[in-house]
Amino acid sequence: MSDEYEASRGEAFSPEREFTQAEQGLVAELKRSGFPISSIENLLLPEIDGTGATQVLLDWFPRISNLRVREAIAIVLGQQPASAALQPLIALFRQVPPDAPGQAKVRWAIADSIARLADESVVPQLLELLRDPTYGQDRGPLIIAMGRFRRLSSQSVPLLIAILSDRSLANFAAVALGNLDDPTAVIPLQALQRESQGEGLKIVSNAIAKIIRSEARRAARRGR
Q: What residue segments make up the domains of the chain, in order of their start?
């Protein structure tokens, strides 16, 4: 078997070529819809306005098996208007089986896009997903997102404190709790701090420090 044959065979099955072939139909439909692109990844470029691509992306997601293209679709959906993409992304997160081979990056990308677009209206849905252990570490971005919603912290803090006992998610929960500035989280975080090392110890310590600083500022304001 010649070296030339082996080289051409390797090129034919290269990841880049497989990606390009897998996205062809989607890219063609996006072009017909008025988007001047040669690859779905072009929709992430700042000079290209991808607004309005949501429905095409959602229609093609289940039709594509290439994992990298599915991941790219999930990432681009995170750049779409929340009014169009947020609920479909939550549905996609539920639909991708937690134990599906090779789908971890896809599900993580979906979760990251949900976190990017999430607002208070979806907090109950996010809490429901966080309570489901079958989604494993892919809940990480959703946990981080909860740290933005201080007004609803009474709903999220008890669950986030409970998640501290899950070593695969504890650092995410610590970041969220630090951002929520809830003093009830200090003691559970200190317990985690005693068990943490390296980067995890730094994350937990930072969260505790943020809460203590915020509480000190609140106490100073009350004393005026």
A: 16-117
Hey, what amino acid is at 75? I
Q: Which of 161, 114, 171 is CA-nearest to residue 137?
A: 171
Distance CA 152, CA 139 (A): 19
Q: Rounded to an integer, what is the distance from CA 30 to the centroid of its chain?
A: 24
Q: pTM, whole model, 2 decimals?
A: 0.89
pLDDT tens digit sequence for 34-51? 999 999 999 999 999 999
Which distant-in-sequence residues (6+ apart) come within 8 Å of 61 by Cβ?
70, 73, 74, 92
Tokens describing residue 123: 């907090």
**Closest listed residue to residue 200, CA positions, set 184, 215, 189:** 189
Q: Which two tokens stand for residue 167?
A: 């070593």
